[in-house]
Specification:
Elements: H1 2-14, E1 29-31, E2 37-39, H2 40-47, E3 55-57, E4 64-66, H3 79-92, E5 116-118, E6 123-125, H4 127-135, E7 144-146, H5 147-151, E8 174-176, E9 181-183, H6 185-191, E10 197-199, H7 200-304, H8 314-332, H9 339-349, E11 371-379, E12 384-391, E13 394-399, E14 405-410, E15 415-417, E16 429-432, E17 438-441, E18 446-450, E19 456-461, E20 470-473, E21 479-482, E22 487-491, E23 498-503, E24 510-513, E25 519-522, E26 531-535, E27 545-546, E28 551-557, E29 563-569, E30 574-583, E31 586-592, E32 605-611, E33 614-619, E34 622-629
Antiparallel strand pairs: 1-2, 3-4, 5-6, 5-7, 8-9, 8-10, 11-34, 12-13, 13-14, 14-15, 16-17, 17-18, 18-19, 20-21, 21-22, 22-23, 24-25, 25-26, 26-27, 28-29, 29-30, 30-31, 32-33, 33-34
Helix pairs in contact: 1-3, 7-8, 7-9
Length: 630
């Protein structure tokens, strides 16, 4: 009897040991900051859907519990409840011992074992109470389920109504949705009259429908996400296929270029071998001639160097005398000590003219985003009237007016005066050669060439009545000169010889040269519309690139013979830079770069290529170093 009482007490107390999430006896009861307790495994499942936040919201009261790096594992165990669970398990024979107890009838006072459960009455019923539920008309709509099914877990009966702690005889069969608590009917009348009240059974049915709907939505969402994952993997395969094709295309392009280079190599080797044979033949001929001369001299001296000369007849003496004269003449001939050196010099002068680097270009990956970025904007100390590349990271700036002089400015903003030439002269433009020599213009007709140590090497006088001389140098160190006339002057690196005068269709203000010797001219603001034209050394011209009215063009050629052109819009005060490739004597647009926010001081602008990925642009009192991202 005592054992039965203990079991019944355990059954009633087990209701306080139920986890609100899994509705089973607590397993590792874990307490939140708010004081509510749940199974640790239930909290871990609940936390799986909230991994993106650093806290947990209590499923009951919505209060926040901060989580550490280990999240649920670092939460405190509810020692009190854990002890009660251990006591309960010891008395009832395990976590599921409560299911082995047969509940008592709650519909009558006999307290007999229940055989069924009425969902409508929400009561366990014994045999005697089951009979009226089966036969009386008033109970014909009641839903009866077997206790065996409840014990075996085949059906769930939900919660039994609790007695109200205030109104002892009343069941808590109502649910206040505002307060989120179960209440009895009298409590509704007294304290929850204006609240949203639901019947407990209706609330449970509604909750079940909600859970069912959510479960269906979860299943549908899961199916949708699984399908999306499959699609992601499919797209991954497509990406890998595309990248493999790209790799194959690059490899194929590489193989083609290698074959072309190997063919080019064999051609060059054959040409070199042919030159070698030619030089060998020339040297052998020269050698043969010298040996023949030696043989002739030896033969002659053998004939005349004879002890019997005094006994010779008159004719013999005359013959020997003639031979002596011939031998004397041969000996007077100057020995050719230079022809071999000339042949050697010719051999040494043979050079490999490197092919256009673009022929080694395997191509570029399409879909990239070429753009320009301003690395540095520098305020100049005066008005710029000339600019040229000094190194791969610096420019030489020529100032006019009171600020006259020449500064060297680098990409970091460092500035120093250029003192390799006299500084008390008003210069108009400057060109810097590879060896450090410089060419500076001092007016409309005159320019001076200075050696790296500052001594003057030559003076260039240009005829004509153009504007002041603008300067540049070619990749082979020639001096390029323009003076806003219809000509371009090309001098050798020393400035002493005028090699070419190239006639131009338009007035030329700025001039550049490619490695193959083509001339790229800009009319800048001297013509409207402004044009850029490409010429060969004979004056043959390609089709001019023409700008709209009041837009001026400034061109620069980089180390790879690509042409950058800055279009300066006079009215809107904006600059657009484009990249062109050379197609014979014509320009083929390749890229229009993003617009840059640059201040235009006036119409005179300068564009210089310092390296394949660095430009310098200047106008008025502003200098910009621009990074090229291809």
């Amino acid at each position: 009897m005592a054992e039965k009482i203990e079991i019944e007490k355990a059954f009633s107390s087990s209701q306080d040991l139920i986890c609100p999430l899994c509705l089973d006896i607590f397993d590792e009861p874990t307490i939140l900051t708010c004081g509510h307790t749940f199974c640790r495994k239930c909290l871990k499942k609940y936390d799986l859907t909230h991994q993106d936040i650093d806290h947990m919201v209590c499923p009951l009261c919505r209060e926040i519990t901060k989580l550490s790096a280990n999240r649920v594992d670092d939460l405190r165990l509810n020692v009190s409840i854990n002890g009660c669970v251990d006591d309960y398990n010891a008395k009832c024979g395990g976590m599921n011992g409560v299911l082995e107890l047969r509940p008592k009838c709650t519909a009558c006072k006999l307290q007999q074992d229940a055989v069924s459960f009425c969902r409508t009455c929400n009561n366990y019923i014994c045999d005697k109470c089951l009979q009226p539920h089966q036969y009386m008309i008033m109970f014909e709509d009641h839903e009866i389920i077997s206790v065996e099914d409840v014990i075996e877990g085949k059906v769930s009966i939900g919660h039994q109504f609790e007695k109200c702690s205030i109104h002892k005889q009343e069941n808590k069969d109502m649910f206040c949705d505002d307060c989120k608590v179960r209440v009895c009917l009298r409590c509704v009348v007294v304290g929850h009259k204006v609240h949203n009240i639901k019947n407990q059974s209706d609330f449970e049915h509604e909750l079940r429908r909600k859970v069912t709907a959510l479960a269906q939505q979860c299943a549908a969402k899961k199916a949708e996400m699984e399908k999306n994952i499959q699609n992601i993997e499919l797209q991954r395969h497509e990406v890998h296929t595309a990248m493999q094709k790209l790799l194959d295309d690059v490899s194929q392009a590489y193989s083609i270029k290698v074959k072309e280079l190997e063919g080019n190599l064999q051609d060059l080797i054959e040409q070199i071998n042919e030159l070698k044979r030619s030089f060998e033949d020339d040297l052998n001929i020269l050698k043969s001639k010298e040996r023949q001369r030696i043989k002739s001299i030896c033969s002659s001296i053998t004939l005349v160097d004879n002890d019997r000369l005094g006994h010779l007849e008159t004719d013999s003496l005359s013959a020997h005398n003639l031979i002596c004269d011939e031998l004397g003449a041969m000996l007077k001939e100057v020995t050719d000590r230079t022809t071999a050196e000339v042949i050697t010099k010719k051999a040494q002068e043979k050079r490999l003219n490197p092919g256009d680097k673009s022929c080694l270009d395997l191509g570029c990956i399409s879909g990239s985003d070429p753009k320009l970025e301003i690395m540095k904007c520098i305020d100049l100390r005066g008005q710029i009237i000339g600019m040229t590349a000094y190194t791969h990271t610096s420019v030489a700036i020529v100032y006019g007016g009171n600020a006259r002089g020449i500064d060297i400015i680098d990409t970091a903003g460092g500035t120093e005066r250029y003192t390799n030439i006299p500084h008390d002269v008003g210069y108009e433009d400057i060109g810097i050669q590879r060896d450090g020599a410089s060419c500076v213009s001092t007016g409309r007709t005159e320019a001076h060439v200075y050696s790296p140590d500052g001594s003057r090497k030559a003076t260039i006088n240009v005829s004509g009545t153009g504007y002041y001389l603008t300067l540049n140098r070619s990749p082979s160190n020639e001096i390029l000169i323009a003076n806003a006339a219809n000509k371009v002057y090309i001098y050798d690196p020393t400035g002493s010889t005028l090699k070419h005068t190239v006639p131009t269709k338009h007035r030329t203000w700025q001039v550049s040269s490619t490695r193959l010797g083509l001339i790229v001219t800009s009319s800048c603001y001297f013509t409207n519309p402004s044009v850029v034209t490409v010429y060969d050394r004979d004056g043959n011209a390609g089709e001019s690139l023409q700008a709209p009215q009041d837009v001026y063009l400034y061109a620069a050629v980089d180390e790879q013979d690509r042409v950058y052109i800055a279009s300066v819009d006079k009215k809107n005060r904006k600059v657009v830079i484009r990249l062109y490739d050379l197609d014979g004597l014509n320009l083929k647009e390749r890229i229009e770069f993003n617009a840059l926010d640059m201040t235009l001081g006036w119409d005179w602008c300068y564009l210089v290529s310092l390296s394949p990925d660095l430009l310098a642009f200047a106008s008025g009192k502003k200098l910009y170093f621009i990074k090229v991202l291809l």
